[in-house]
Amino acid sequence: MRWREIGETTCSVARTLSVIGDRWTLLILREAFLRTRRFDDFHAHLGLTRHVLTARLNTLVDEGVFEKVRYQDRPPRFEYRLTEKGLDLYPIVIGLTRWGDRWMAGEDGAPVELVHRECGHTMLPELGCPECGGPVNARNVEARPGPALRALLTNDDGARMRRAAPRDDKEKTR
Fold first, then answer.
1. 70 lies in a domain?
2. Closest CA to 71 of 92, 41, 96
3. Which of 100, 101, 145, 171 could pair with 167 as two cysteines, CB 3.0-4.6 Å apart?
4. Residue 38 located in a structural domain
């Protein structure tokens, strides 16, 4: 599969990566969650070329992650504000932050602390089940085919079904 086709697959991770799957886009999102909104501020904070920044911001606007809002008429100037779709990316950025703090932080520790505004405490966010409140991790969650994959498995010609079906032990060791 080619990278430009990744957003067309029946996989939520692949589709998400088709929108946010490069380092600059994730850093732009980090800045947006730190309240950066203006092009020149993104440029100053990230140090990437104006051309790359423009392309990434345009993609995020086209995908509905940001909305472009005029804040000045002469000359025209715009802010990039996170939409509801963009705000829903917060857990991804926080998940990357938490992993980086645990595995990539230097001797001085984490570069940023997260403070819960409602109680004022510094915290490490954790995933929790919305039904029981229990922790969610790779050891206690199982993935099952959802409606889109079940439809693909029952309606397709078999070639895609073989790609999507779980592999047996022989294939895992190859």
1. yes
2. 41
3. 171
4. yes
